[in-house]
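2024-03-11 09:14:02 DEBUG pipeline.ingest accepted 1 chain
2024-03-11 09:14:02 DEBUG pipeline.ingest length=316
2024-03-11 09:14:03 DEBUG pipeline.predict start
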Amino acid sequence: MRLLVLGGTRFLSREVAARAVARGWDVTCACRGASGPVPEGAHHLPWDRAEPPPPQVADGAWDAVVDVGRLPSQVAAAVAATADAHWVFVSTVSVYADNSSAAMEPLLEPITDDVDLATDPEAYGGMKVACEQVVTATAASSVVARPGLIVGPGDPTGRFAYWPQRLARGGEVLAPGRPEDVVQVIDVRDLADWLLVLAEQRTTGVLDAVGRPTPFGDLLAGVATGVGAADPRLTWVDAEFLEEHDVAPWMGPGSLPLWLPRPAYDGMLRHDPGPAEAAGLVLRPVADTAAHCLDDPVTALLPEREAELLAAWHAR
């Protein structure tokens, strides 16, 4: 297999390239290389996607292309240059217009302009819709994979690693919402392996690329097992209290990762993995994921702030 990975130096695209090399594939990573080196054994084709594709992209005779792009003009240029290859486009569940539902429709309106997410982060889903449309309309064959929350070793966001590291630290742990609230994660290694299956088998269509929907309490129990935290002391704090105390959901400074407002986001983390599993996706236990996230960076609720919140909760 001659595989072109658009990217190859960060998180998912790097994992895809590394695992393709491990399979013995001929792998080329087309990217600037600004985020670090491509995996050992892969070829680096320098390309700033703000510029037109270099001749080597169009002349590569690729069997498949894997792209995680989000800017419509860049995805359009890449697929036009490699339209004869089988395209595996990594989209997102953020393309869905109704986060309260796990249905695969309706989609957001496409945003065909390249929008700077630093100024308008809400444009992400609409741009991904536009990218999906250009891939399916232009490539000779294609599959669109829509991941939910991608976690695992190397994640630069800290959205999941907070929990393994917090549970490993011990003590009383502030757990957000209710233990029965459903959440969903997919390990980057499982997703990368599956994208290569889609490439090799030339799978077509649109599939949600998600892990199994799991009650938050069960997920934290699995994380605790993975980091050797026996019988963690979880204190479940309701959403109203967290909102009143300005605790951010999802990710970022001051946040409690994986926590989302309910019922507005009831569907975002409970999509059906069945069709993807039928197409070759194999999912590992969350304990295995947790065990490999103890050294990843975390940007979330600080220990001092957690202690303050727990004291205020108990003092109500």
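2024-03-11 09:14:41 DEBUG pipeline.report The first strand starts at residue 2 and ends at 6.
2024-03-11 09:14:41 DEBUG pipeline.predict end
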